[in-house]
Write a structure and sequence with these properties.
The complex is a heterotrimer of chains A (42), B (143) and C (89).
Chain A: H1 2-12, H2 19-24, E1 30-33
Chain B: H1 6-9, E1 19-25, H2 49-62, E2 66-71, H3 80-89, E3 93-98, H4 105-112, E4 117-121
Parallel strand pairs in B: 1-2, 2-3, 3-4
Chain C: E1 10-12, E2 16-21, E3 24-29, E4 35-38, H1 41-49, H2 56-62, H3 70-82, E5 86-88
Classes of the chains: A mainly alpha (42), B alpha/beta (143), C alpha+beta (89).
Amino acid sequence: MIDAERMYDRRMEHEEVPEQEIELEEELLVEEISIDGMCGVY
Amino acid sequence: MSVESLVAQLKTGLDAPICLTWELTYACNLQCVHCLSSSGQRDERELSTAEAKRVLDELRDLQVFYINIGGGEPMVRRDFFELVEHSVGNGIGVKFSTNGAFIDAEKARRLASMDYLDIQISLDGVDAAPPADEAPADGSAGQ
Amino acid sequence: MSTDLLTRPLELHPQVALRSEPFGALAYHYGNRRLVFLKHADMVAVARVLADHPSLESALRASGIDERRWPSFEKAFDSLLGSEIVRER
């Protein structure tokens, strides 16, 4: 549980990012997941 | 500020389920030999209406998006519509499986009028399934 | 992808539920049953204020998103438009 919180905090921090990283990074900010049939009665 | 792959991000899991499968009752008007839950007889420990509603309230608070109701035959329960309406009314979508025996015109209209409700009706095939070792008609046996 | 998405006024579809998660949020559309992961807190922040702004560009600026990241955000919101998670006002 503690590790999860630390990971969460790290991600929420707004760190100083080197200029190159911003340009080179292509962020995939959304991802659609197909959940059809994942949860169900067969 | 990189975005990690979903696999990495999901290592800590989600805060709540996306959806839940719920066997509401094991009572059923049928006793299909292929039933995955071997249903046909009501379990005396099944939840009361009040208990079921409390479960739904918990799911609402967790923000579960939808539930998948099965059984047994969910429509056998006298409180079936009450529970479905309680679920949908609290923002929890409902998908449910049924053999359809209890759906008459009036029930069908009632179901159709509801917000977010998906229905899966189990249909029987005309014949018994062929034995596994029978050669397929297109000659693909051995592949 | 339309290049003027930045100038469009957008909003979350009214049938969408946005649920916070450690990585960002889950967006579930109760109408078309689609599920989308918003994979960064910044993406969630912008999505939540979309309707309060005259354009996507305004929402990005107000949320403090560095302009060099805007192409990624524009691409993401274009994808959300496609799955009807967001729509034009």
